[in-house]
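Structure tokens please, single chain.
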Amino acid sequence: MFKNPFSFSGRIRRLEYGLSYIIFMVSFFLVGVVTEIIPETESLIILMIMPSYWFLLAQGAKRCHDLGNSGFFQLIPFYGILMLFGEGNHGGNKYGYNPKEIDTPIAKREPFKLRILLPPGKSNIDILSEILSFVLLNTLLIQLFNNYIEKEFFRFLCIFLSVFMCFFLLLIFANNKGPLPKFNLYLFRQRLTYSVILSISIYIYNLTFNYTSFQLEDISYAIFLAIVILGITYLPFIIYKSIFKKRKEEFEYEN
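Here you go.
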């Protein structure tokens, strides 16, 4: 129990998820108490509660896996009731071994391992270099918009479109206008890596060229920015998947 509480892979039982929810509520309450006692910490509230949310989402994802579903199912309203009281899948499923049976000799001889498969012919270095190229382009565009567009609405709109277009171009370049690889964890890691590096790149650029001073609350801002960018990258991902899936189907039909 609680072997990898911040990991999104594997399965957990109802009891562990219930205890995780209690721990989350207690930590949330403690953060509120700390901000009441020390008002100066209010600017750090996002940073303080982020580990708690990460912990709850990770444990929730593993509980969904125990029920045989994707971790995104925990976002469905009232699905939490099933997570608390539903019986997990008997035996192993595609997410791992049954946590009730994890101590059996078979499980010990053949431990479940999560592997993130990569597209053929590509290494982690190749993928990172592709991401960095478009992150640098995206960072430059964002700074140009910040410096030369005065109206706030149009500035944010242009920044949104720059993230959208740069990530869409990354998908085109990385996949050679072909269908996306059928590796969901790899695709999510690609979006997450792009979001985190872009957030860090924007912050470093501001420190270096805009001469902004480092403040502790900027860390929580960078985390929030990475989450926002991660959400934006989902749109070009869906559009690319739809467009090039249709093209593949049309090509197969013609041949």
